[in-house]
Amino acid sequence: MRGIPVFEFASLKKDPSAVETLKALGADAFVVVAYGKLIPADILNIPRLGCVNVHPSLLPKYRGPSPMQWAIANGDPDTGVTIMQLDEGMDTGPILAFETIGLDDTETLTSLTKKVMATGPALLTSTLKRFAAGEITPIKQDESKATITNLLDREDGRIDWKKGVAGIERMVRAYEGWPGTWTEWNGKRLKVLSVQPTDLKADFPPGTVQVKDGRLMVEGGDGTLEILTIQPEGKAAMPASAFLAGYSEINGATLA
Question: Is the CB of residue 225 less than 8 Å from the CB of residue 165?
């Protein structure tokens, strides 16, 4: 509709047409967002300003594919967006600009993604203009402060009830959507969608379920966590009260 050409390559490394097609654009810079793969040097070197990447963390902290999840799961007070030049490494290139984003105690992957999307475009635009005008000197990253995140899979979302309840609560918020947080009961998976720590002490082994005043409580390694929203395998998500109405026998069970 806007007359913007779209090219699809089977592989930037293996498709011989990729380099020539991109060279023919005569671009001053390439912008890369959420690509997730390393770009070959012969493509990185095409534009005079290089390839500019929008990365959702304050580099060099949280390189790799899961920076927003790690920031929330680790309880960081802030994260941010970094505009950087790509090189042949994974998020190792020099920094052009960054902007800090504060995280609150209820931050989820969804809410942080919205903050990043509100911050990134304006920061990218202003940075490109200043970089093209020669007003920015790229800054080399401090390798001693680098942290590498991994690509999350479903098993990463399994809850270890031996851990502290604060860490489990952050994990539920961080892994919202994918990979999700879950546990098992009677051989079935239970997705744990929202929780809150309580001031109750852990009186039973980790993973033990206690129903108190109609509330679904699970013992953690250092306290008790209340499950607010849950999704039984094959069922829709529901508040804990509705779950307990149909699965009262879970009281006293041990989640794994």
Answer: yes
Report the C-alpha gap between 139 and 84 in whole angstroms: 9
Gap between the Cα atoms of 255 and 22, Å rounded: 53
Cα–Cα distance, 87 to 44 (Å, whole number)? 7
Domains of the chain: total: 2
Give kind and range of the element (H or E) at residue 124. helix 109-132
Residue 78's beta-bridge partner residues?
Answer: 102
- Whether the per-residue pLDDT at 63 is higher than 90: the answer is yes
CA–CA distances in Å: residue 150 to residues 62, 68, 95, 101, 156: 9, 12, 21, 22, 10
Question: Taking the mean position of all CA atoms in its chain, how far away is CA 250?
Answer: 32
pLDDT digits (tens, 9 = 90+) for 152-196: 999 999 999 999 999 999 999 999 999 999 999 999 999 999 999
Q: What range defines the domain where residue 159 resides?
A: 154-250
SS (H, E, C) 157-196: HECCCCCCHHHHHHHHHHCCCCCCCEEEECCEEEEEEEEE
195 and 119 share one domain: no
Mean pLDDT of 33-40: 91
163 and 118 in a common domain:
no
Residues 132 and 202 placed together within one structural domain of the fold: no
**Closest listed residue to residue 88, CA positions, set 13, 166, 7:** 13
